């Protein structure tokens, strides 16, 4: 079960996904709202926090979450203060009840990761791509359009048209033909 705890929140925040199951994991912590209360209203505890990347709208609540639940934070670059453990490109990790592959996808930020569960057909896309062909900003520090395009291409090579759900860092999740939205984002990034 995947819940977006930031849905309806009126604040500068990313989406925050609570993935329930054998290993209850929070994907990104968001910022500027009481995510601890939102977590506690659904589950008794967390097994881990996993970050798509460390822009402040995605990690602003890290300290509150780690204090409340005594959990470690996993991300691509463990030299960054918010990250306790590194996730290597291609590593396999359990989120909820499913096995996900971590894909290093820089271009929006150097430490950006996407998480893909082939068997379940689920992609956590972070700020790489969004619905309707939108894609992550490349005008911030560490942003690079060509690198972003290469990362989108890498995700397209990893997923297929059976993709059932795409959960993005901002905006609504995509459950209707999400593969097409990723493909369109690749096309739009080349045009922009």
From TrEMBL:
SMART domains for this protein: Lactamase_B
Needed cofactors: Zn(2+)
Zinc among keywords: yes
Keyword entries, A-Z: Hydrolase, Metal-binding, Zinc
Residue ranges occupied by any Metallo-beta-lactamase domain in the UniProt entry: 13-167
SUPFAM superfamilies in UniProt: Metallo-hydrolase/oxidoreductase
InterPro entries the record matches: MBL_Glyoxalase_II, Metallo-B-lactamas, RibonucZ/Hydroxyglut_hydro
UniProt cross-references to CDD domains, sorted A to Z: metallo-hydrolase-like_MBL-fold
One GO molecular-function entry: metal ion binding
Zinc is among the record's keywords: yes
Protein name: Beta-lactamase
Phylogenetic classification of the source organism: Archaea, Methanobacteriati, Methanobacteriota, Stenosarchaea group, Halobacteria
